[in-house]
Design brief:
Elements lengths: L2 E4 L7 H4 L1 E2 L3 E4 L5 H11 L2 E4 L8 H4 L1 E2 L4 E4 L4 H9 L4 E4 L6 H4 E3 L4 E3 L5 H11 L3 E3 L12 E3 L4 E3 L5 H11 L3 E3 L9 H4 E3 L4 E4 L4 H11 L3
Parallel strand pairs: 1-15, 3-4, 6-7, 9-10, 12-13
Antiparallel strand pairs: 2-3, 5-6, 8-9, 11-12, 14-15
Length: 221
């Protein structure tokens, strides 16, 4: 399982600018063909350049698993059409908190969501992703998607997570939970990692010790 160090538009926060599941990777519109090829190589899936909400912050706005990609209602019709043209199943989530990547932590087994979400939003997430969705926090904070990143093999979380939160997330997502940083000490793993069960793209400032930690939890080579 390959791990590639990279950046997007010179920025090492690859997780803020991109999204991946087991079937597709989405990077900002205007991403070079060479960069798309690098992500395809690392993750073993097709990679596309598509903006979300007229923004490069793809990873902030998108969430999802193999069953569906979740988009905020502020995504444009053109963006939705481009995503659907790739063959991806797309679900629009009508929720005032549009940064879905920051409030949903999920894989193909489950989803842990911001406790402030309304029941109808949680139900919509469950229906789209075809997994149970449970509220949860990391360090008592509700922005669970920004504080950890998940694959079908593991979760890497902000070091502020406590043992009860770690146990809860592990039970819901069905994978082990570890802690770590990226990009030379940044405690928000989601910001610097794009991962699926086939590989990972990691921010270019990530240190060797950080790579060892994420390689362990995500079972990379």
């Amino acid at each position: 399982m390959p791990v590639i160090l990279s950046d997007i538009f010179g920025d090492p926060n690859v997780g803020i600018f991109s999204f991946a599941n087991e079937k597709i990777a989405i990077l900002p519109a205007g991403t070079s063909e060479g960069k798309l090829a690098r992500f395809k190589e690392a993750l073993g899936i097709e990679a596309y350049g598509i903006g979300i909400a007229d923004s490069r912050l793809v990873g902030i706005y998108l969430s999802g698993n193999s069953n569906s990609i979740l988009l905020p209602y502020i995504a444009t019709e053109e963006e939705i059409s481009k995503l659907r043209s790739t063959g991806a199943r797309v679900t629009i989530i009508e929720e005032k908190r549009t940064a879905l990547g920051n409030i949903i932590l999920c894989n193909d087994h489950g989803a842990v969501v911001d406790p402030r979400l309304k029941p109808r939003t949680v139900s919509a997430i469950e229906e789209a992703l075809k997994v149970p969705a449970k509220p949860g926090t990391i360090g008592g904070l509700p922005q669970i998607g920004s504080l950890a990143t998940a694959s079908n093999k593991g979760v890497l979380a902000n070091p502020i997570i406590d043992e009860s939160e770690k146990k809860h997330i592990s039970e819901v997502l069905g994978v082990p939970v570890s802690v770590g940083t990226v990009n030379s000490g940044v405690p928000y793993p989601r910001s610097g990692i794009v991962v699926n069960s086939r590989g990972a793209v990691v921010g270019s400032h990530t240190l060797g010790a950080e790579l060892l930690a994420l390689s362990s939890v995500f079972q990379t080579d």
